[in-house]
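Researcher: Structure prediction, please.
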Amino acid sequence: MTLFDPVPAAEAPVAGPTERIRMVVAYDGAPFSGFARNEGVRTVGGDLTQAIATVLGTPVELTCAGRTDKGVHARAQVVTFDAPVGLVDPARLTKSLNKLCGPAIAVWGIQAVDAAFDARFSATARRYRYRIHNSPTPDPFTADSAWHVDTPLRLHTMVLACDAVIGEHDFAAFCRRPKRRDGLEASLVRRVTEAVWFDDGEGQLRFEIEASSFCHQMVRSVVGTLVDVGRGRKRPGDVLGIIRSGDRDRAGDLAPPHGLTLWTVRYPGWSSDEGRDTWSSA
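Model: Predicted structure follows.
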């Protein structure tokens, strides 16, 4: 399910040289079943692919920096695709895509880049942000973007528990193990360079975590476990033992997806939140 009619199969990409196009997009994940295209359901990648093909008149194939799950948002997702040289006018395509896809999807900027640049494999780090509204009463103004936790949380214990997460670990206890086509066991070792909680006042808590990459549902599982620490169900010192155990049953429940946002993607010499208002006019 998408908002657009598919481009006819006979309409093949224009023959000839192509150029790599980079886009930075933001989206509200609520209406979508994740980013990756999936027949029969509406996805961010599906809407973007069809919208780009509609404007350019040729099919495209998208690569993204992070395949966000159903209901997860993005502030600065990075997407790349190849198009015939000279076909993409950045300002025109940005305006057209925002008209077709907004307000659920917003394109910050479009730029031609070196052919070696890849949204996924060129990235050196991804940063996620998770928001919690910690109050006895819900807040209608954050209901779509923050997890409402109505029991008091001990923030200082959640801060202490973050120490165990930082560093290089096997995060099998915090994610699903993917099935590889070659039958080999996928590595779940990841290096977390930052994990920190902030108190933004009025019951608004913010968790930020950055790593080279993340396993499937890893951030939501980490948040769920840290919230258990804040509730007193687990101790800060338990978190390292959970990591070392590799046992998914010892970690906390998944935090709801609507509190999670892909915030920034970093590349050598550039990050996805730079120059967002100037690209299209460059």
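Model: The chain has two domains: 18-122, 125-264.
Researcher: Thanks, that helps.
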